[in-house]
User: Which sequence fits this backbone?
């Protein structure tokens, strides 16, 4: 594709020769002739001047200072990530969408399918409601009493159990499990022993429109209300969302995060990888939870917390810095003790100075 | 259902009008007319007086003090969680159990099935032994040389490999993997490089009666003995149970817990979410491991530990509190240094006071 | 099998009666007559003298000091783990390898299969390239545009998406997901709200020869380059390998590790269980990351780090030890303050000593 046409299409400003042709997008490190190179992070931009790409896609802010260093054509845009997405759409045709219901899928006679539904081989679909344009991947399982909104996409091997509703355009990753019962047990007296039996759940799961759920992630159904993942929330791989949890809208749960039962995560909150939220704990709107942090108290809206137990991010940074210098602090105390001991030895303990 | 009949059935004491009808159980926040509201936690009980439910189910202990504040009928019970489970059973009919072997399942001619076995569409069952009333979900895989005890329930998409025995009434969650080989490798000299090859495992997996295994959880087979999950142990989602591990009975592993090879977790021990146990480490009977804790030394029976490396819970709480005040401690040391320095400046270093 | 023959076959030195017969390998704790007992760890060797095994397999180094304490035959070897692997191979016949393409598998007409390919019942294979001796487990999914090298083994229920190449002899565990898109989003202006849309990925996944991938582990495809798991790297269960990550060769990722996007893990590096690496962070060759550590800065080659944020292992050990004694340190400061206060009270604040 000609650079001038590409610039127009992705909303970028072109510096250099618009007649040049690029055929694909590549990391700035790997890009060569015919490639549009992209630096994924600010520090990768240092590598840009040495790139072998035919053209580069960079942030306007960087170009303002550095464009003169480049000896190749440049596309400048802000935000650059949006231009990247568009460039990929322009240069890399999307793989063909699957079409039709594969004859090797098992679809219940009572299932109601909209127009242009695609169901892959080996998938099993119960008495469910599938909106227009829904895609169900190979070997996925859609139970009875499930609703998949228009354009929803359930990946290969994903499992969607009864009582789950998935909104329009939402994506459910491969191997994800939606609607399993949560970790709720109640004691039942028995002649011989106290046995904890699972409490049957009366809530379901609601995945709102535009949500993305990652691979092998689990979202449990609610014990007493619907577990809810709000619109456009992004959930990464291997995340645990417990029963009766309410997340989002527009929240972000990075890989391996765990949210225990009854907790809530407010609009736009971001939980970094491997962090956890204790049961019945609330993370406020726009709050940010650091990687591996353990939230055990409610987090106010807009706050940033880190550590286990999670505390304000700045306090945690300071504490961690001090922690590394505890040895030095202990030595300073020892010096003080020695000096005071010495003075005490010299000066009579009781009596004037 | 009439409240007086419900009270009788779930073993609760009725305060108010027994003629009232309730149709379903709901969280106290969501409950409205026709609902039995339930407060899942003590602090939710504050919301109870304002509830719109027709009736409420509350702990006896709370009712004793607060029942007079309520303007709706009340059911009081202890333990309230047991009454809740029973109320759900009374008001919410269980979904119909699956029945029979689906013709789209693949069942080996050598499989031995008890009475009333149900196998879902797309499931694959090898030369295995399935007791009476076993349920195998859609798209689950039961390998050769597997035994599923009476009433065992294997969820959709779960994978049960050769050499795994599952006890009576045990539940295996959707997407769980039982019996994969553990993370055990041995070096093999090769002409060109040292290569680590997997050591074939001679142990299997034993899941005892009444165990619950969560979604996408993994239990590895033993290298030299059977990996064992003891009776009535509850394992949440996305948990890793390593090779040769012995857990339970009656233990609790919350979501995303990891137990490394050869470790043991004693009867009734509770591991909170995202905690981990190092290989060859023993967690004693009734011990409690805090969320995200990292157990690297044996934990005595009945002990409570937290932190990484895990230490006694109280010591950890104290250390965490101090950690937050390290700044202040450092300032105090600085003050001492300044004052002592001042005195030193005033007083001759050697010589009498 | 006779002990003398076994010793010869596994490269061990025999102490005792070579006429004895052993039939299987077992943990030293479980071993009885007819068993070859094996102590999996140094501290288990204490149990060896009391073992009921017919014979024991022990490290040469241990035998040198302790062989005289034993009253049963002994096989001594170094490294003992290699001899163990060989003993298992000798005494425990491998389960029969699956053979042929099951008629209940769904194999695309355009798939190209090498010799001796085995595909299990319920598996779905697209227009992919499967080398000689490849095994695809039951209910696994191999998408279009996948290459599986000779001898590669894809476990039951595993999901291998388009653009993934798996090297010779590599193993993909049950339920693993390779090639899902990573967690990369870009803002798209919309009339009503800012929406983050997934950026389509142009990279794939390369799993090199001899790699082992554990159960339910996820390896995301690259956004701008191939995500790569280098030769002979061992990845345990429930691990997250993010988009554009490069790991190995010969690296080790223990269970529940998470590697965020664009990070790299060098040759031979070892990440212990539940540790995490921040996006765009590099772990050097041969580095060791402790259990549950959180790597947020680059780790130099050969370094050992621990804690969150990860610091050098020794510094972390020291800091953790000090942390446990913060109470004591605070008390020492309080004593100093009291003593200095007392002296100040006695001595006039200004004026000579």
Assistant:
């Amino acid at each position: 594709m000609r650079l001038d046409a590409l610039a127009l299409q992705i909303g970028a400003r072109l510096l250099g020769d618009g007649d040049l042709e690029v055929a694909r997008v590549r990391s700035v490190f790997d890009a060569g002739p015919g490639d549009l190179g992209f630096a994924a992070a600010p520090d990768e931009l240092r590598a840009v001047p040495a790139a072998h790409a035919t053209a580069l896609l960079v942030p306007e802010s960087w170009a303002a200072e550095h464009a003169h260093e480049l000896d190749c054509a440049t596309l400048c845009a802000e935000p650059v990530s949006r231009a990247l997405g568009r460039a990929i759409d322009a240069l890399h045709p999307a793989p063909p969408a699957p079409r039709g219901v594969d004859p090797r899928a098992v679809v219940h006679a009572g299932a109601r399918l909209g127009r242009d539904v695609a169901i892959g081989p080996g998938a099993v679909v119960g008495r469910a409601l599938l909106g227009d344009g829904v895609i169900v991947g190979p070997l996925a399982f859609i139970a009875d009493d499930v609703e998949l909104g228009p354009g929803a996409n359930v990946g290969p091997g994903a499992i969607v159990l009864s009582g789950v509703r998935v909104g329009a355009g939402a994506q459910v990753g491969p191997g994800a499990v939606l609607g399993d019962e949560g970790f709720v047990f109640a004691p039942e007296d028995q002649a011989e022993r106290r046995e904890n039996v699972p409490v049957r759940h009366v809530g379901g799961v609601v995945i709102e429109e535009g949500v993305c759920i990652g691979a092998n992630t689990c979202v449990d159904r609610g014990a007493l209300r619907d577990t809810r993942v709000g619109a456009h929330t992004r959930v990464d791989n291997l995340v645990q969302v417990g029963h009766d949890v309410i997340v989002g809208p527009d929240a972000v749960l990075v890989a391996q995060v765990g949210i225990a039962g009854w907790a809530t995560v407010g609009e736009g909150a971001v939980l970094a990888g491997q962090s956890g939220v204790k049961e019945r704990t609330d993370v406020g709107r726009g709050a940010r939870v650091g990687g591996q942090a353990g939230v055990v108290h409610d987090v106010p809206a807009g706050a940033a917390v880190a550590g286990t137990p999670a505390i304000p991010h700045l306090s945690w940074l300071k504490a961690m810095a001090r922690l590394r210098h505890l040895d030095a602090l202990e030595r300073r105390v020892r010096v003080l003790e020695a000096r005071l001991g010495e003075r005490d030895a010299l000066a009579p303990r009781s009596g004037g100075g």
